[in-house]
Amino acid sequence: MALSGCIPFYLQLCSARGQSDKTVAAKASNLSLFSAWCEQHQVSSAEDIDLATCEHYQCFLNQYRTRSGQRLCRGTIRNRLTAVKLFLRALFNRSLITDSGFEKLELPRCGRVLPKPVLSMDEVKRIIHQPDTETAMGMRDAIMLELYYATALRRSELADLTMDNVDLPQQQLKVCHGKGFKDRLVPIAPDTCEKLRVYINQIRPKLTTLCSGNTVFVATLGKPFRPTQLSELIAGYIKKAGITKGGACNQLRHAAATHLYEGGADLRAIQMILGHADISTTQVYVHVSLCHVRKIYLRAHPLARHKL
């Protein structure tokens, strides 16, 4: 079967299994790159792809350089190879190919990469105080920034937040169909909850239109925010605050997680708030929290307490 025909079939299969649009789009992008490489190397049929072909492609990815001369990071290489392996596995399971040698392809280990430098509490305050709260949009932006930090939501989760998922009496949000299609409840700090109440009752009606639907936070012309719009908005306020640490929405999420840990929250609670499927993902904040580590070091290391 021609490779060009197998890829659309596989992507339709992924969609039928209920995989998210983002997941299917990422697979489509990775498989498009693989298909282009195969075409350059006269591999036109899926049946012609064996372990040697996969290893040749892996070698190409390892040697590839971007326009700026940068190598592909190990995570990117692993993602592209994983997409190919899953694609070939689906074809093999449906008897569209007969060679299962691709299963022996060894994927590169990625290790654990620490997040970018975390915002301090003072930096978070500076960012939250940047919007002009004399205007309706400035009030909206101020509560969005504070809610990001108070709840550690992902940007897509905030963009998709609806009125019926805000429980002001219980001071919590319900995140529906978060990453991995998992729902979770996230507490809101009392003061943030009161500001959110003011926004919903007094500010939001000034910004909504017929196309706003039930979305809590609306952008220009009353339309729901797109995730990229949120990133641009948050990045703008971070820059306006004079903070040079890179990142946008995730900066506030990472700061919230790190500050929770430094404040004494256990990892399981932080995992539930962040919506991590694996606690090993949450454990990265233990390594990021240098302030917490420094306190332990100064208390425990002999040279921190006594001179030689």
UniProtKB/TrEMBL annotation:
Residues 1-92 form the Core-binding (CB) domain. PROSITE patterns: CB, TYR_RECOMBINASE. It comes from the Bacteria. GO terms for molecular function: DNA binding. InterPro entries: CB, DNA_brk_join_enz, Integrase-like_cat_sf, Integrase_catalytic, Integrase_recombinase_N, Tyrosine_recombinase_XerCD. Keywords: Chromosome partition, DNA integration, DNA recombination, DNA-binding. Coiled coil: none annotated. Gene3D superfamilies: 1.10.150.130, Intergrase catalytic core. Residues 114-298 form the Tyr recombinase domain. SUPFAM superfamilies: DNA breaking-rejoining enzymes, lambda integrase-like, N-terminal domain. GO terms for biological process: chromosome segregation; DNA integration; DNA recombination. Signal peptide: none annotated. The keyword Transport does not apply. The keyword tRNA processing does not apply. PANTHER family: PHAGE INTEGRASE-RELATED, TYROSINE RECOMBINASE XERC. This is Integrase. It comes from Pseudoalteromonas rubra.
